[in-house]
Amino acid sequence: MKLTLKILIAIFSLTILSHCKEKLTKPISFFEDYDLNSGKYKLEVYQIEGEIIDDFKKFYIDDSETLKKMQKQWIFKYKSEVMPCGFGYELHLVKDHKIIKKTLINIDCEYMQGWIHFPKEYLTDHKNHFKRIIEND
């Protein structure tokens, strides 16, 4: 009986611990402290493989109000699990037509390059502000 109780406690403990996310040593802000009010910034998103958001393969967001909301939202505090999902999108933060920051994300498995937890809502919540990239842009 004691052995069964110990096994149940061990299984319960492992279940609880496996659902806890490991914190990063310090939060990471994708947009850092850039002044997004200037109107010189945009976030470009390019599909690499896998799942896409509603048929958006290449798109950008240049609305400064939306970018400021994203700046507040995109503060990453947790590590993700290591998963064999690959990366679906490459993100570019662009200022004055120059890439100043890049990262890779997977919206299905919800992680960003460096095994950082990236909730898919961080991008999908803003899809009403997506503008398609046309090859001539």
> Please, what is the average pLDDT?
87
Number of helices: 3
The best one-word shape is elongated
Instruction: Summarize the biggest pleated sheet.
Output: 7 strands, antiparallel
Topology (elements, then pairings):
Elements (H helix, E strand, L loop, with lengths): L1 H17 L4 E7 L11 E7 L10 E4 L2 H10 L1 E4 L10 E7 L2 E9 L4 E2 L3 E2 L3 H4 L6 E2 L5
Antiparallel strand pairs: 1-4, 2-3, 2-5, 3-9, 5-6, 6-7, 7-8
Q: Would you give an account of this structure?
A:
This protein is an alpha+beta fold. It has one domain (22-132). It is 23% helix and 32% strand. It is built from three helices and nine strands. It has helices spanning 2-18, 64-73, 121-124, and strands at 23-29, 41-47, 58-61, 75-78, 89-95, 98-106, 111-112, 116-117, 131-132. It has a seven-stranded antiparallel sheet with strand order 8-7-6-5-2-3-9. β7 (111-112) and β8 form a beta hairpin. The protein is elongated, with a radius of gyration of 19 Å. It starts with a helix and ends in a 5-residue tail after the last strand.
Features:
7-stranded antiparallel beta sheet; 137 residues; alpha+beta; 9 strands; elongated
